[in-house]
Queue: 4 jobs
Job 1
Amino acid sequence: MTEFTPWLSLSGGLLIGLSAVLLMALHGRIAGMTAILAGIIPPFPSDWAWRAAFLAGAIVAPLGWLAAGNEIAFAVPLSTPTLVIGGLIVGIGVTYGSGCTSGHGVCGMARLSRRSIVATLVFMAFSIATVYVMRHVLGA
């Protein structure tokens, strides 16, 4: 069971928001993690350096948290094949939705983009339905 940690969650949310604002202010780019990740896969675009730095920060920050002696309460009660299939389904959704939860949910909604608001509502509706089916219908 993952613990509810309101202060850590608030801090993480503030850092995500700050990074999104800084990326927009300094580079004029939206912090959509899928597009950022796609930009470091060859062939490299001309702006690959900031993308690599952004992703490095997303990896190094949790490692720094762990190195400081903290732990990250996290449990995944699913098998690796299930996670891979889920990742593929999410990838398909990101492709057809023209963006991911970070691009639409964090940045798009902050800009009051109608398209992003609708996309985020769809993400949330399907997430809620998936959890309901998995826990209450399939008993997983």
Job 2
Amino acid sequence: MVQLARHHDGHTLTRLDELAQREDVSANFLVQILNDLKRDGLIESKRGKAGGYLLARAPREISLFEITQAVESGLLRLNIAVEGESGSAVKAAWDQASQALTKELKSITLDTLGTQSPMFYI
């Protein structure tokens, strides 16, 4: 997404192989992520020889929270049964951490990603 944001002008496509090379990941792995991002309306794609990918919206309108939800929707949820003496305390702590992380992820957009030094509190 950062690569697409760097080259965003609203109409220029970036090829899959270029993205994979710039980020040093396999094209097969990257296409799976791009499909998730496309499904959630964060990117658009065009097929064919002159095809590629571009952001569906301006970089300032796409937050890291949206990206996280698209590729790893369960990341911020605690998926365990709340049982035993410690269960509710663990769930409460995770909920608090999840809320703080969600707030931070929503505040970071693709256009500020390279210029902002996020602070994370644990």
Job 3
Amino acid sequence: MTKITLICAVGMSTSLLVDKMKSAMVKLGVEAEIRAIAESKFKEYEKDTDVLLLGPQVSFMAKKFKETYEPQGIKVAVIDSIDYGMMDGEKVLKMALGI
């Protein structure tokens, strides 16, 4: 099962997106474990993450996260700001899972 972690500055707005992604999982018939956390807490979850999605507000950290975590096998991507703003959980889930 793919483990997806979303991070933003505080972890609040991404929690709403996680709910939408979980609804999309049911619709698409896929399984994943999804969580939203503040950027400052990611170290606690790095060993339990396959895909790391950054909220647009922390996109400036993408280079650092890619350099640090992609060599460890963690896919790192920035959530499209329009998809984020529209809370398009299905589109973000598909992007995370590569479908």
Job 4
Amino acid sequence: MYLRFAIAGLLCLLPFAGAQARTVYECLKDDRLSLSTAPEPGSKCKPKRVNDRKAKVKNFWGDQGPVRGNLYTTRMNGKVVYSTRPIKGWKEVAEPVRVRAPRDSWAHEGYGEVGKPRLDVFAAQFLAAAKKTGVEDAWLRAIAHAESDFNARALSPKGARGVMQLMPALARAYGVSDPYQSAQCIDGAARHIRDLMRRYKGDLVLVAAAYNAGTGAVDRYGGVPPYAETEDYVEKVQALYERYRTALKKPATRKS
């Protein structure tokens, strides 16, 4: 299981001295990776320079996404040090505040919650789009469930529309003239997801992140953007995907 820690949260604990870049340490011990604001005792650590003012920090864990969780602190050489690793004698501190997506981001939490799969809604449209694009029916349903809770008239605060919550620019790019028309919206979204799967070589974590926050954000961060909305969305879609795979009697696949 990978660490669940927001790099931006670690940086916000550092005293601000006017510089835009800081050094944090990527530390390895007992095959476990951690981040620290100083080299950890007994760990093999490498320094990493990161931008703390804009929080545009490259994801150290590749396609596993930004992670969050508890921090541990102590004083070393008169300075306060933070680490994501529980170290004997270090004090556990509260989880850092997560970063909200910027106003111009597509990222939104979605209207659906993890719950019982709904197989009776737009079944023909999902099946047709799946056959046309090769995108799994269960994945399309998971996205629709998370995005709109299957509400074809849904409109997000960011301007996303329809059952698949297509942004206007995306709808235009895929020739969707009326995103509130369920068949059009599902078809356009399926074609977009197919393109995302090709772009990210089938990595569904990155596909979900890009669907939520856009490809620019995923590429800029080198993984799942460290936005609270996107982190929650990716977890929600993954959980729903498992449930829809089970409901459709297909064993879930996992990317190694």
